Q: What sequence folds into this?
């Protein structure tokens, strides 16, 4: 298994290190990335970034060019020189849009370069492309469990050949379950992943959306794939309750 494959792991959401000193931008990036299925951690300067990259072994680094204490270019060079971090994909983020700056960033070891301002959707697309190049097959956009297939790119779910129509919240719930089949998640964990850390929602709201997901997934003759674990939470599983 490659080092990148080891970082991602089977069924594990990619961990992204966001290296940026603008607090508002960090908050925006983390919110959007976590909504799109990534885990995140952040560093506000180059020295902290090098330490976290070595300790946490992220799947990808989003690296701002202009940083306190050490430039993003120098951080990139040091990451490439360190045997423990040299293979981590790096995307540089910068307000410097000149072609010469882009070439300099790529020559320092970055895998891609994105000029500010940028859209979160473009950033996520660039990230997925870089991860696919780093480790083909580990960023599959089609998830499968039993007779259910989930096409993340087309935003389509099918079971036994029939289309399953889901609302946005039920889609995110099912995606999370299908990324971690068999694992039990509490209501609080599901709230953090699906609704976000900064959104207040009653834990019982999870039950409402689980019922909707079950109704959409299961016809009369089909097995219920959502297992309720008393006093613990829910899991995508074929075992009986």
A:
């Amino acid at each position: 298994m490659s080092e990148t494959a080891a970082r991602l792991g089977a069924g594990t959401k990619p961990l992204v290190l966001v290296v940026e000193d603008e607090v508002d931008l960090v908050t925006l990036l983390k919110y959007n990335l976590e909504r799109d299925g990534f885990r995140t951690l952040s560093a506000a300067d180059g020295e902290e970034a090098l330490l976290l990259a070595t300790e946490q072994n992220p799947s990808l680094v989003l690296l701002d060019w202009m940083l306190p204490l050490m430039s993003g270019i120098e951080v990139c060079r040091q990451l490439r020189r360190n045997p423990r971090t040299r293979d981590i994909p790096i995307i540089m983020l910068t307000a410097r849009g000149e072609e010469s700056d882009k070439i300099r960033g790529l020559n320092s070891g970055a895998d891609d370069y994105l000029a500010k301002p940028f859209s979160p959707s473009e950033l996520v697309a660039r990230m997925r492309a870089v991860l696919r190049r780093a480790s083909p097959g580990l960023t599959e956009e089609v998830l499968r469990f039993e007779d259910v297939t989930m096409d993340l790119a087309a935003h389509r779910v099918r079971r036994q050949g029939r289309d399953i129509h889901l609302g946005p919240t039920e889609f995110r719930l099912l995606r999370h379950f299908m990324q971690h089949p068999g694992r039990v998640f509490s209501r609080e964990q599901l709230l953090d992943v699906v609704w976000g850390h900064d959104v207040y929602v009653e834990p019982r709201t999870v039950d409402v959306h689980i019922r909707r997901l079950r109704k959409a997934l299961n016809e009369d003759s089909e097995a219920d794939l959502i297992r309720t674990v008393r006093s613990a939470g829910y899991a995508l599983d074929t075992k009986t309750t």
Remarks:
- Confidence is low (pLDDT under 50) at residues 1-6.
- Residues 68 and 196 are 29 Å apart (CA to CA).
- The chain has nine helices and eleven strands.
- The longest strand covers residues 15-19.
